[in-house]
Amino acid sequence: MHPKVIVIRKESNISEEWQCHFNYILDNHLEDTPTDEPLYSMPNTISSLIKKKTITLAFIICGIAFHIINNPFFINALKLNSSYEAPLYEVLSEHLLNIKIAKVINKVNKIIGSATNLTVGLNSWTFSNGLSIWNFVIIILSQEEYFYELSNYLDQSHIAKFLTSKIELIVNHIGSNKISAIISDNGANIAAV
């Protein structure tokens, strides 16, 4: 069964390949994945907000930089569907992105909230420019990983002490009775914890 998809009108002079590129899944929360199978029973009107949310999702999923929305070539591509008005850069990068992030965080919190036997995973990278990036993930029993936090801890000179407090915050937020293990690739710092 395929989810609902909105496509460009069939009577337009746009090729099937272009239609596939513009097929984005629209449920109320924009949480499905794209497909290239068009929905032939298209609604007569699509609200401006849904169009803006769809473009935002496409930018996020495809890893497109938000400033591209102001590029004249991209604007011309959008004009293939002359009734569409592209959102401003600020709308994409601030308001709509924040809404999407909030929905994802809420969904992840619900999944973690109902799961048991969780594993907290820590991973770190140090870059030549001095950045000290730490990634925290929550792994549920079905081995699905959920991003919890990604931060630069360059300013933390006592990393073991800092990690102890960070792990305590995560454990307290999730609930110590739900966590079965804490794993990391950085043995020296974790041993000090």
From TrEMBL:
Keyword Transmembrane helix appears in the UniProt entry: yes
Keyword annotations of the record: Membrane, Transmembrane, Transmembrane helix
Transmembrane segments: 55-75
Name of the featured protein: 13343_t:CDS:1
Record organism: Cetraspora pellucida
